[in-house]
Amino acid sequence: MNGSAEDYKYVILGAGPAGLTFANRLLDAGVDSFLVLEKEETAGGLCRSEEAAGAPLDIGGGHFLDVRSPWIDDYLFRFMPRSEWDLYTRCSKIDVRGQLIDHPFEANIWQFPEADREAYLHSIAKAGCCLGLPAPEKFTDWIVWKLGRRIAEDYMLPYNRKMFSHDLDQLGTYWLSKLPDVSYGDTLRSCREHRAYAKQPGHAQFYYPKKYGYGEVWLRMGERLGTHLKTGCTVTGLDFDTRTVTARGNADTFSVTAGIVVNTIPWTCFDRLDGMPEELRRSTARLRTSALQIEYREDDPYPDSDAQWIYCPDPALSYHRVLERRNFLPGSRGCWTETNAERTEGNGNFRYMNRYAYPLNTIDKPAIMEQLLAFARRHGVYGLGRWGEHRHFNSDVTVERAIKLQQEIE
Fold it and tell me: Which residues have CB under 8 Å from 150's CB, separation 6+?
């Protein structure tokens, strides 16, 4: 394709879960005129896996297949049969001043010593949401209003600062509705009866491959695409008026035109966005992301824990989360950590830096994305998935959105 332009019905940018699902759905529908362009040499996006110390390690961090949408699981089992997965009940913990308690925090303060329990209960009783006070606008104030000052200061605020390394008050509060309501009555009851009273958060149960990393299912989806998938191709530009995509391959540059473009890569990684109004281009450039380093460590800081992952709000620790792979991948050893790129340190045997790990939910993001996605659609360009929609979707949600978009368009 050196220097040439080819026409396709669909051009899909990115071969992560969103692009792979959309492309495979096209094959299912009998569509043959499409091309998927992927920067990396292998498919999978943030769900790719490598090997460290003789066992898989997921380079995007902790990715698992949730059970909450059985029809999505059944779709993925077409590529990697159910017999190749193990089913786990989630066990996650929080390291609070060296003590591991079960997640979620507010449902398990009964696991603390009595003096701490009383302090947390007193703080929850004074939380703004429990008193019926209106929700504040600033992120840090909202967390205190929602959870009480003690939980906010011991856990949620330091954890979010570590995870995003960002002025938290530049984040909006519109995305925090998933945090459970804190009930003083339920918390008091849990302290008296020594058991949690709260709804289990996402991933209450999840599937993980028996012998492979999570990236295996996406590799197989990519293999099915055959020559429709072009890896090692960095997309550099998009012309909205002609739906022409320019890209740089291993040894050439080329362009392709499409009836429809499906974009699943970060909008901020394009060198050129031709045909986009200047004001919208400036707004798009304000979208923010965070980078994440995944590091394999032999010196597991929690060698005796039965948790699959552990949240670490302590500012003295560089990482914010530990994945205990022996607890979801039998026969493996060591662990991997997730660390914001601005806090990286350590001497692990394997490291991988994800330049694009999380879309940041800044205050102005909803307005920017509403304008951007509407403009793109008017020009036959559809944003899809974590990056195309700039929202923190898990892989199962991304698959669902890709299936529904393909149904809508086709």
Answer: 119, 120, 122, 123, 124
The pLDDT of residue 202 is 60
Identify which has the larger pLDDT, 184 or 166. Answer: 184
- pLDDT for residue 347: 64
Amino acid identity for residue 184 in this structure: Y
Structure tokens at 215: 């990236």
Residues 176 and 256 grouped into a single domain: no
Per the structure, how many domains does the chain have? Answer: 2
- Which residue segment(s) compose the domain that 238 sits in? 5-53+212-288+363-409
Taking the whole predicted model, whether its pTM rises above 0.70 is answered as yes
Q: Is residue 55 within 8 Å of 349, Cβ to Cβ?
A: no
Name which of 205, 229, 234, 208 is nearest 219 in CA terms: 229
Same domain assignment for residues 181 and 109: yes
Residue 319 in contact with residue 339, Cβ under 8 Å?
Answer: yes
Specify the 3-state DSSP secondary structure of 238.
Answer: strand
Rounded mean pLDDT of 81-100? 96
Cis peptide upstream of residue 209 (ω within 30 degrees of 0):
no
The confidence score (pLDDT) of residue 3 equals 42
* Residues 161, 278 share a domain: no
Residues 155 and 123 placed together within one structural domain of the fold: yes
Q: Up-side HSE of residue 4: CA atoms within 13 Å toward CB?
A: 4
Same domain, yes or no: 132 and 218: no
Q: Is residue 130 within 8 Å of residue 181, measured between CB atoms?
A: no
Tell me the average pLDDT across 158-187: 86
Q: Decide if pLDDT at 59 tops 50.
A: yes
Mean pLDDT (the chain) is 93
Contact 362, 369 (CB under 8 A): no
What distances in angstroms separate CA 136 from CA 74, 164, 191, 232, 269, one per listed residue? Answer: 42, 21, 29, 46, 34
The Cα 381–Cα 276 span in angstroms is: 12
73 near 65, Cβ under 8 Å?
yes
* CA 80 and chain centroid, separation: 21
In total, the chain counts a number of residues equal to 410
pLDDT in tens, 193-214: 888 876 655 678 999 999 999 9
Strands 34-37 and 229-230: parallel
